[in-house]
Amino acid sequence: MSVPVRRAVVADAGELARLRQLSLTCPAVPWTRPRAVPDGPWVEECQEAIAAMLRDQDTAAAFVVAAEPGRMAASAMGLLLPRLPGPDSGKPFNGDISTVATDPEFRRRGYARAVVTALMDWMTVSGCKRISLASSPEGEPLYTSLGFAYDDPRMSWRVR
């Protein structure tokens, strides 16, 4: 069965923000009760940021499976991040998959695989050497099956 995937447009920003909020509810401990993610101004800010991201067709994309007009069943969003050439690659970008989400009533149908694969294809055609993402424990089997592996550990810093 072929899954009908399309590239998201600015009009999809509200649904993409809803799915992003949903993705943030993934529990810290696999297969336990979802975390509570409060509504608030951040949801509207997220919608505006997604709309701006989708206007920049060269460095950002989202792919979706529609459940019905105006409602998405699944989505994957990502960015192309400029990189400096090195001895192993002159490719201009690394890809970052920032959000993958499937509405609970549409899970186990291959929708996440379809939207992530479409996003990976777009990133590769756009000149990516490496694509990275952060996964919930529930998502790890999917990403492993698509060829993702734990890379050398990276450190990060956050403002507190």
From TrEMBL:
One Pfam family from the record: Acetyltransf_1
Q: Does the keyword Acyltransferase apply?
A: yes
| CDD domains, per the entry | NAT_SF
Keyword Acyltransferase applies: yes
Please list the GO terms describing molecular function. acyltransferase activity, transferring groups other than amino-acyl groups
Q: Which UniProt keywords apply?
A: Acyltransferase, Transferase
TM region positions:
none
Q: Which InterPro entries match?
A: Acyl_CoA_acyltransferase, Bact_Acetyltransf, GNAT_dom
Q: Residue limits of the N-acetyltransferase domain?
A: 3-160
Q: What name goes with this protein?
A: GNAT family N-acetyltransferase
Q: Which organism is it from?
A: Streptomyces alboniger
- Print the organism lineage: Bacteria, Bacillati, Actinomycetota, Actinomycetes, Kitasatosporales
